[in-house]
Design goal:
This protein is of the alpha+beta class. The chain has helices at 3-18, 63-68, 129-135, 191-199, 226-239, 280-290, 297-308, 331-341, 344-351, and strands at 22-32, 37-38, 44-60, 82-88, 99-102, 107-113, 120-125, 141-148, 156-158, 165-170, 182-185, 243-256, 264-273, 312-313, 315-316, 327-329, 355-357, 367-371, 375-376. Among the domains are: 50-253, Valyl/Leucyl/Isoleucyl-tRNA synthetase, editing domain (Isoleucyl-tRNA Synthetase, domain 2, Alpha-Beta Complex); 327-371, no CATH class. Helices cover 24% and strands 30% of the residues. Strands 3, 4, 5, 6, 7, 8, 9, 10, 11 and 12 form a ten-stranded mixed sheet that branches. A four-stranded antiparallel sheet has the order 2-1-13-14. A three-stranded antiparallel sheet has the order 16-18-17. The longest helix has 16 residues, at 3-18. The two termini are 34 Å apart. It binds zinc ion. Residues 32, 34-35, 256, 258-259 line the site of zinc ion (ZN).
Length: 392
């Protein structure tokens, strides 16, 4: 890239920061484990992929509390274990499960199954009752209670293989399009999950490293690559009697446009441009109309992205490209040093060559700062057809 262009990128980033649009966040982003980097929406393409599709039991911990919240209970509470059933095409995300989401306005049914040796009670959305029972081959069943989604808020369920209680939470993103109407929620691995999880202050757990493998200390799955861990997760579910059904599904799945390999959503600390702060989305849309576009299809593509995108992740974990030329406020580290050595530590820092910088967004002067190691993503527009986003 020529020097002028590189310098202009840095100046633009400076303006973005000065206008208060830039922030560091810990959110799930598209991640290619072959690149070892976050990817922009424009670097993602959709390809057909065979995935596992599994239905999993999350046992209800307090049966009485659940029935107390139901509004129609004709004849007793039935018999056998009582579970909410979720459906997922990403079994490897279950170690990061922190909740199960219901739609607040949907009706849910508690279904008594009548198989002679396996009586149990399963909770699914009423609108998917017939479909799920057909799918699971359960011929004989009857509904023993109904309840609205919002009545079950914060009831506790048992994680299917970890010693972890997870709450039922509410989200409008839960629909009757597929599955059971109860959505497995892993805020570290999905944007909808992250957003709804924030409302409930649910941990953003990301047990997956940049190489796509479970990090040290992840019980049962440590060191395994997420895609090869799918079968192990299914084995664990089977051995614990938590798997209702396992199937294969061929669907459109996001892939890295460089490697053509499936990508994942993974929460990492990244730099973001906040699209809603200080009217950035609206002003960007206005400016798009002022630009002469070559080729002209670039306009519609960028317009669609700016209209719909969440906060814009600009970090890339690569050594090439234009670095994010930021100095990061390190006050808490300075405080730690001062705690150890007294205020003299401040002057020692200066002697060791730390940079003194007055950040434009900051009111206080002469803060100690460190340097960001991230590189900035320069937009690359391609003419790929946009497909509906899905959780991976
Ligand atoms: Zn890649």
């Amino acid at each position: 890239m020529n020097f002028q262009q590189e310098a202009d990128i840095i100046r633009s980033l400076g303006k973005i920061a000065a206008n208060g649009h830039l922030h560091k966040g810990f959110k799930p982003v598209h991640w290619c484990s072959d690149c070892g980097s976050a990817l922009a929406e424009a670097e993602v393409e959709y390809r057909d992929k065979d995935s596992f599709a599994i239905d999993v039991r999350f046992e209800v911990l307090d049966e009485e509390a659940l029935f107390a919240r139901c509004h129609a209970i004709p004849n007793g509470h039935g018999e056998g274990p009582l579970s909410v059933v979720i459906w997922t095409t990403t079994p490897w995300t279950l170690p990061a499960n922190q909740a199960v989401a219901f739609n607040p306005e949907l009706e849910y049914a508690v279904v008594q199954t009548e198989a002679p040796h396996q009586k149990e009670r399963l909770i699914v959305a009423e609108g998917l009752l017939k479909e799920t029972m057909d799918r699971w081959g359960i011929e004989h069943h009857r509904v023993i209670a109904y309840g609205r989604g919002d009545a079950f808020e914060r009831l506790k369920l048992q994680h299917p293989f970890y010693d972890r209680q997870v709450p039922i939470i509410l989200g409008e993103h839960v629909t009757l399009d597929a599955g059971t109407g109860a959505v497995h929620t892993a805020p570290g691995h999905g944007l909808d999950d992250y957003i709804v999880g924030q409302r409930y202050d649910i941990p953003v757990d990301n047990p997956v490293g940049g190489n796509g493998c479970f990090v040290e200390g992840t019980p049962m799955f440590e060191g395994q690559h997420v895609f090869s861990a799918n079968e192990k997760v299914i084995d664990v579910l089977k051995s614990r009697g938590k798997l209702v059904q396992e199937a294969r599904l061929n669907h459109s799945y996001p892939c890295c446009w460089r490697h053509k390999t499936p990508i994942i959503f993974r929460a990492t600390p990244q730099w973001f441009i906040g699209m809603e702060t200080n009217g950035l989305r609206q002003s960007a849309l206005r400016e798009i109309n002022q630009v002469k576009w070559m080729p002209d299809w670039g306009k519609a593509r960028i317009q669609g992205m700016v209209e719909n995108r969440p906060d814009w992740c600009i970090s890339r974990q690569r050594t090439w490209g234009v670095p994010i030329t930021l100095f990061i406020h390190k006050a808490s580290e300075v405080a730690k040093k001062v705690e150890e050595k007294g205020i003299e530590a401040w002057f020692e820092l200066e002697a060791s060559g730390s940079i003194c910088h007055h950040h434009p967004a900051s009111r206080s002067k002469h803060r100690r700062v460190g340097c960001s190691r991230d590189a900035i993503q320069v937009r690359r527009i391609r003419a790929s057809r946009r497909r509906p986003r899905q959780r991976v």
